[in-house]
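ingest -> validate -> predict -> emit
validate: passed (alphabet ok, no gaps, 69 aa)
predict: started
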Amino acid sequence: MYSAGNRYRLQILDGHVSHFNWEFFDYCFNAKIIPLCLPAHSTHLLQPLDVGLFGPLHRYNSNGLDEFI
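emit:
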């Protein structure tokens, strides 16, 4: 398991009700994970993030992996 040490991490959730229970939030609190819950049925509005934000991140990670291999 990856350890972030004493730093906080962000977990992005799609807003589906199946993700939300007290056991999950208790785990997040104890593991220093901040759950960001996107509104349900809003992925069509958030689609530009895939291109503008996550697209370059994916390319950067892929290029780094290619160089490592």
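Residues 43-69 form one domain.
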